[in-house]
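Minimal example, chain plus 2'-deoxycytidine-5'-monophosphate.
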Amino acid sequence: MTNNNIPVITVDGPSGTGKGSLCGRLAETLGFHLLDSGSLYRVLAYVVSKEKISIEDIASIVEQAGKLDLSFEKKGELVSILLSGEDVSAQIRTEESGNKASKIAIIPDVRAALFERQKAFQMSPGLIADGRDMGTVVFPKADLKIYLTASAEQRAKRRHKQLKDKGNDVTVAQLLNDIAERDQRDSQRQVAPLKPAADAIVIDTTNLGIEEVEAQVRALIEERGLSS
Ligand code: DC
């Protein structure tokens, strides 16, 4: 149990494993708060582009990380992200934002600047935390740690479907390339690299539908008495 007795369930893993869908469903059914930590890195990437800050200008990126004016609005399973009151949810969901987010997430001072903001999401009655380092760094004492994996091919196919539904015509081959590059960067970085916590339960979602993944995690939640 975490130090203030508010339960935390962490879900880490690379993109395209179904983390976002799983976390949205769990937060909704349990009535817990939801932290989509990737959205913080994505918003920062969006600000960096908007302010025309060079990716090499670490001091300015860190400064922006420290003063992000963010708020979140829950809409069913989804959470809208507002930057200075403006809904930027659609703008930050592009491949470009994800890739740029991964590049700025390497900077240790950026991670430090966003750390407390993430901790603050731990509010009653509980938290579902979605990311790369939720179980290893941000909530090391979480009550349940899940790590989702899936083959790169399956993840590219899922991402392709999501983007096609939004009218984007990127190819599976291009996505496979992006995924390999991002995995490499996220898992090789010095600070808080993508990896399962020692006490995480790893679920391979390559051949599982979201309902099956959710059922497995729900069983673990019941087993640990976290759903009351
Ligand atoms: O989960 P996502 O695709 O929205 O995350 C975008 C990038 O942000 C990801 O490639 C790496 C970074 N990230 C991170 O470093 N740590 C997290 N806890 C979440 C995301």
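The mean pLDDT is 93. The pocket of 2'-deoxycytidine-5'-monophosphate is lined by residues 15, 37-38, 41-42, 98, 101-102, 105, 131-133, 182, 186 (CB under 6 Å).
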